[in-house]
Amino acid sequence: MKQTVTTVLALLTAGVVNCQEVSEVDSLKSFDLQEIEIESLQVGYDHPATHVTVEAEELQRRDMGKDVPYLLQNTPSVIATSDAGNGVGYTDIRMRGYDGTRVNVTVNGVPLNDAESHKVYWVDTPDLLSASSDIQVLRGAGTSTAGTGSFGGAIVMRTETLPLEFGGEASMSYGSYNTNRQSLRIGSGLLGKHWVVDGRLSHISSDGYMERASSQLHSYLLQAGWLGDKTSVRLLSFGGGEHTYNAWDGVSAEQMAVNRRYNPCGEIEDDSGAVTGFYADQKDNFMQFNQQLVLNHAFSGKWNLNATLHYTYGAGYYQQYKNGRTLKEYGLTSLVDANGDALEYSNLVRRKGQKSHFAGALASANYKSGKWHVSMGASYNLYLGDHSGRVLEVAQAASFEPAGDYYGNFSRKHDFQVFGKMEFRATRGLLLTADAQYRWVNHSIRGIDDVYDYTQGAMQRIAINEVFNFFNPKLGVSYTFRKAGRLYASAGMSHREPTRKDFVNAIGDDKPRPERLVDVEAGYQFNNAYVSVGANLYYMFYKDQLVLTGAQNPDTYEALYVNVPDSYRRGIELEVKVTPLAWMWIAGQVTLSQNRIRNFTEILPNEDTWVPDTLYCGTTTLAYSPSVLASGTIGFTTHGFEGVWRTRFVSSQYATNADVEALLLPSYCVTDLMLSYSWTSKKGGQQFRVGLNVLNLLNSQYVSNAFSYSAVAGGSRYDALSYFPQAPIHAMGQFSIRF
């Protein structure tokens, strides 16, 4: 390790000298090669896919340590949520009403979504935002990409390009709830006209707004590259580790009325059910390491090739204190208490672990000449995952020694796709696009799951082997007027396979089916030096969409899903930005939507008979789908000073699909204030920046998320919500230097 560090430092030091010897022509060639990679991953401004790009400068100004969802909530139809309440730790994103499992996320074209759950665990790649050069957000069906299908949209992230000049950056942030971040980056610049080394280290920690919802996050990014006249090769490694105290369970309305910050995770109860304390190790511990080898080659001015090999290793576990558990559900049938009597129920500590390997390759050949831009490519990914659980302590047992795992299962998932994309500039201003993807998925799971099957008197066995074949076509047209903006329209199809939990939590013999989306969009955009306006209409038709039933897994309390034959989302997204003065701008955006399930039948667990009840509800509103999202921004910048006032409004939303008023989350409005001052040293040319973010400035008492539980007990229905309160007014300050 010491030798490696010495070598890297030597290379960086050498860069101070050697970068001065590189000619401007060599730098331009290297820059052009990196631009080839950009074109292969992102769509252009006039592409008819509905999209917005957050550029590097905006990322740097807004990044103070919160996760990616919190930056992207300033784009249309996006909501960010946080378990800990302050945007550090476990966070999630919703786009057009869909959570992160329906949003395709890639980093340099490589899928970031977990292959089994389809989730993006942003906490496993902490501070990824500071290592990103830009982020493009595509709403709706998007374009062909590796990984799970885009339903709510897609997030296309690129890590920083290789810096061609020696330099670096250091930043420090500190704020409310002891939230702090330190980050350091150093790049060598060009060495010997071809080589570049670049690295970044980050640390983030926070106590969290919710009680005990602490986070300790460490991350790194290291890349080395070779840049030639026609070829560039980049080896990239990024990842890190996290230790996060659970805040997953939310808080009931009754608890929140007494203590808004109460976190029930880790409660230790006595025999009467009274809480006597909290388990100190109720934590999630995970590490993830992502490796990518990226090749770009220009055969000529018209043809180029992009190819990537990747491998991701993930491993970790979480521990939970569970009260009053039935011991046979954990394979424990021979324990006795202090009196020598057979022990059937007890408090206990369990650990659930996971190890995964995710590897693959993707490549595309791109042709660009005159009116034509054509891309053809393929990708293959293999996922291998082990899941296991073990009981560590049994509180009421006279004696106990951990005796192996009480469940264990293994997953394998193959994901292969081929695609072709075409852009044709038929006449001046007229762009026609076509996109077709074939995707083959094989997902198998074997072993014993973590749920006890009372009908069999044993842990639930899993034997799943499913194959899916998807064809995803897309068409688009865009016409750009000389002075009057552009019109565009697109239609596309996307498919999505069920997740691992959709299979293992399936109700009865109702095996989950894949989902299908047909997305039709049309819009108008206009930009000049003073005014920018945009309007986008969308209609999203779904077949067999997997939606919440209102029930939960009895062991993990995960929400259960069921296919519904007919559902849709339709809406309009409006944006406007006015620059009345060179130093001032005013912007606003609003999404008005209608989100419905036709002929919805709710499935409720019956705690009296243990046979599910069904209730026909007719046409209902899709869960977590507010009909109004709006924001307004006023900003100024002058002589290095910048200030931004931003207000966001989210209308009320149901936490289930049955339109139950007791399960309605209230609307909320949140205002943030961002202030900064930047200057450049006259002698050394270093760039300095100090900033202050005051979040929830008007001290709104709001919740951004909740999960519901509905059931029948004692012959009557009952409904309950667990809320995730968000922090009242809080602040974060930052100082950074770039050299």
Please provide a brief summary of the model:
The protein is mostly beta strands. It has one domain (2-738): Beta Barrel (Maltoporin, Chain A).
Low-pLDDT runs of 5+ residues are 1-28
The secondary-structure class comes to: mainly beta
Strand count, sense and barrel status of the largest sheet are:
22 strands, antiparallel, barrel
Kindly state the number of beta strands.
37
**CATH top level assignment:** Mainly Beta
Strand content: over 45%
Tally the helices: 6
Mean pLDDT: 90
How would you describe the shape?
globular
Summarize the amount of helix as a percent range: under 10%
Going by CATH, the homologous superfamily would be TonB-dependent receptor, beta-barrel domain
Q: How much is the radius of gyration in Å?
A: 26 Å
Q: How many domains comprise the coordinates?
A: 1
How is the CATH topology named? Maltoporin, Chain A
Intertermini distance: 27 Å
CATH architecture: Beta Barrel
Structural descriptors:
disordered N terminus; 22-stranded antiparallel barrel; mainly beta; 739 residues; 5-stranded mixed β-sheet; globular
Q: If you had to describe this structure to a student in words, what would you say it looks like?
A:
Helix content is 8%, strand content 59%. The protein is mainly β and 739 residues long. It has a single domain (2-738), classed as TonB-dependent receptor, beta-barrel domain (Maltoporin, Chain A), CATH 2.40.170.20. A hairpin with a 6-residue loop joins strand 25 and strand 26 (559-581). The model is unreliable at 1-28 (pLDDT under 50).
